[in-house]
């Protein structure tokens, strides 16, 4: 089977790894086939057929053919749109890398969903227009958790469904999100943390704003303190950590940037 569109499949590169002397294994997220891995023959020796498109921050047209087994063959790529000028902003690159790593780990292989590409492109647009934003990253995390079938419960207790979540709420990633005071006694798994009303309100605000660009507004919302933002971030990271089951390299890099005093610690 070859690509139905002669210009190639619209998609983004999630990661690349060397294969043999001259080939690359490229992990892509494509509009029509979702996440897949493809061999790009000769791509380490010559980038001619790939026109510099096998990198982060490029929306490409990938000429793909199904190979034997799970690996596809990537014959060439053209650039459809690119945001590579962001490459000079180390924080922007860290945020873009994190989104790519989330797609590579949270989204199941070969299950196409048009929302995934739009979401990543929306994050890149938001980075290009207004720079890195913790609120935008939270929107990406929530959207990808949702697309993977793991949207955290924020409006009602994940265990009993009670909607009046007030003081005493915990966030329990293995039970699916916010847990009311009565059910909290049954929470004993990993990653459980208290979730005070302001941190919960922050997560609800991000969920309601939906797009990365819109979610930037929580960065400067006077209702939320830095510790509310941190608590909300840590709740989502606990959920992602439980699902992924290993440390995300891009996230460790973002934490290092934060520790080194760079702006916009997520
Ligand atoms: Zn409950």
Task: Note down, in words, how this protein is organized.
By secondary structure, the chain is of the alpha+beta class. It has helices at 90-106, 114-130, 134-147, 181-184, 197-209, 212-215, 226-244, 249-259, and strands at 9-19, 23-30, 34-40, 58-66, 72-82, 170-172, 177-179, 193-194. It has a five-stranded mixed β-barrel. Strands 7-6-8 form a three-stranded antiparallel sheet. The chain is elongated. The structure holds zinc ion.
List the helices and strands and how they pair.
Layout lengths: L8 E11 L3 E8 L3 E7 L17 E9 L5 E11 L7 H17 L7 H17 L3 H14 L22 E3 L4 E3 L1 H4 L8 E2 L2 H13 L2 H4 L10 H19 L4 H11 L7
Parallel strand pairs: 3-5
Antiparallel strand pairs: 1-2, 1-4, 2-3, 4-5, 6-7, 6-8
Helix pairs in contact: 1-2, 1-3, 1-8, 2-3, 3-5, 3-7, 5-7
The protein binds zinc ion (ZN).
The site of zinc ion has 8 residues, from helix 4.
In short:
By secondary structure, the protein is of the alpha+beta class. The protein is built from 8 helices and 8 strands, in the order βββββαααββαβαααα.
């Amino acid at each position: 089977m070859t690509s139905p569109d002669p210009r190639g499949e619209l998609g983004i590169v999630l990661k690349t790894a060397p294969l043999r002397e001259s080939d690359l294994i490229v992990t892509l997220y494509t509009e029509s086939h979702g996440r897949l891995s493809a061999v790009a023959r000769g791509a380490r020796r010559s980038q001619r057929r790939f026109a510099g498109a096998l990198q982060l921050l490029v929306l490409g047209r990938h000429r793909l053919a199904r190979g034997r087994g799970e690996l596809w063959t990537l014959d060439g790529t053209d650039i459809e749109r690119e945001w590579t000028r962001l490459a000079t902003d180390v924080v922007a690159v860290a945020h873009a890398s994190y989104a790519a790593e989330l797609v590579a780990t949270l989204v199941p292989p070969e299950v196409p969903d048009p929302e995934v590409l739009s979401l990543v492109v929306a994050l890149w647009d938001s980075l290009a227009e207004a720079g890195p934003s913790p609120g935008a990253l939270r929107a990406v995390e929530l959207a990808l958790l949702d697309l993977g079938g793991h949207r955290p419960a924020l409006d009602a207790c994940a265990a009993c469904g009670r909607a009046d979540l007030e003081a005493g709420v915990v966030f329990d990633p293995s039970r699916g999100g916010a847990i009311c005071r009565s059910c909290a006694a049954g929470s004993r798994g990993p990653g459980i943390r208290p979730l005070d009303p302001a941190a919960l309100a922050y997560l609800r605000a991000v969920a309601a704003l939906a797009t990365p660009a819109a979610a930037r507004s929580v960065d400067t919302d006077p209702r939320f303190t830095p510790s509310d933002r941190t608590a909300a971030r840590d709740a989502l990271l606990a959920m992602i950590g439980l699902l992924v089951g290993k440390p995300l390299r891009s996230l460790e890099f973002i934490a290092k940037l934060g520790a080194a005093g760079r702006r916009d610690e997520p």
